[in-house]
Amino acid sequence: MPTPDTLIADYLDRLRQASADLPAGSRAELMQDIGAHLAEKVDATASEVQVRRVLDELGAPEEIAAEAADQSGTRSSAPAAGGLAYDVATVLVLLLGGFVIPLLGWIAGVVLLWNGPRWNARHKWAGTLIWPGAIILALVLLTADHRTSGRLGVVVVTGVAAIMVGLVVGFVYLLRAARSHR
């Protein structure tokens, strides 16, 4: 489990890498500003959860570097993983990967999601848990005792519809979250 100091050091390393194309003065100022902000918001007794919350509020280092590059008139070398195509591809792999290649497709989508700079930890956990939650709900529906009601078909169709709606809602949530961080 990462310590608060490790989380901050990793975040600053990512910011340093993402801002490599900034002019030296702009990059130094950016690093100093973010370092000062973190020092102000995170004290020595901060928990891992508190540090993650502060880092999520700041946003992805790649986004910060891109914004600094826009302000300074230079282009950042931030990875292409921040574009609309990446966001849509990630959500499609999460949605369809589980159907095409049941376990590996879902894992590929999760890897893309966790490497995407547009989503914070809450979004990433929600996207990760959507498929397992759908599978658990399907298993509950299939193993429930339907003999007393005699309406197995209605229960299954309703359950499948609920699962599909839940998946679509979850993935729309992820796309909206990504769009709001562009």
Structure description:
- Pfam families: HAAS (PF22564).
- Keywords: Membrane, Transmembrane, Transmembrane helix.
- This is DUF1700 domain-containing protein.
- It comes from Rugosimonospora acidiphila.
- The chain crosses the membrane at residues 88-113, 125-144, 150-175.
- The protein is mainly α and 182 residues long.
- The chain folds into two domains: 4-78; 81-180, no CATH class.
- Helices cover 76% and strands 0% of the residues.
- The chain is built from eight helices and no strands.
- It has helices at residues 4-18, 24-41, 48-58, 61-72, 84-100, 102-115, 121-143, 152-180.
- Helix 5 runs antiparallel to helix 6.
**Which spans have pLDDT < 50 for at least 5 consecutive residues?**
76-80
Distance between the termini: 30 Å
Radius of gyration computed on alpha carbons: 21 Å
Helix content: over 70%
Number of helices: 8
Structural class of the secondary elements?
mainly alpha
**Tally of distinct domains:** 2
How many beta strands in the DSSP annotation? 0
Taking the sheet with the most strands, its summary is: none
The quaternary structure here is single chain
Summarize the entry for a quick read:
Helices cover 76% and strands 0% of the residues. It is an all-alpha fold and 182 residues long. It is built from eight helices and no strands.
SSE map:
Blueprint: H1 4-18, H2 24-41, H3 48-58, H4 61-72, H5 84-100, H6 102-115, H7 121-143, H8 152-180
Helix pairs in contact: 1-2, 1-3, 1-4, 5-6, 5-8, 6-7, 7-8
Transmembrane segments: 88-113, 125-144, 150-175
Protein name: DUF1700 domain-containing protein
Pfam families: HAAS
